Structure prediction request, 133 residues.
Amino acid sequence: MTTILNASPSNGLVQTADGSGVIKVQSNGVTTNALAWVNFNGTSSTPITPRASYNVSSVTKNGTGDYTLNFANALTDANYSAVCSAGDLSTSAKFAFGYYGTAPTTSAYRIATSTFAGTNSDISYVAVAIFGN
Prediction:
């Protein structure tokens, strides 16, 4: 499922591969690079075409400020960490957060974008990075 390049104190540099195209760079068995990331326009209609991405096959718009990131290659487990950000060119503050109305899975992650007033909002610049093993 993945190409792993692991720097191990006991075994030196070890590489394993399966041809999937997903790369994990590890230090002593802990992955140090993003397993998936995406930058997209949240004001677009579904399906949303990402501006740029890695290991994200599509972004589905579920409703206003509610999106699902679909991974091109499944992650090892659902115990990953997501870093989300959102903003636009207005002066009003906006943010993105993991949307746990649906638990993270190995194949998808759901997020929401909102104003600081707590209202879901479509935002023109949304970025998410997924880290884990």
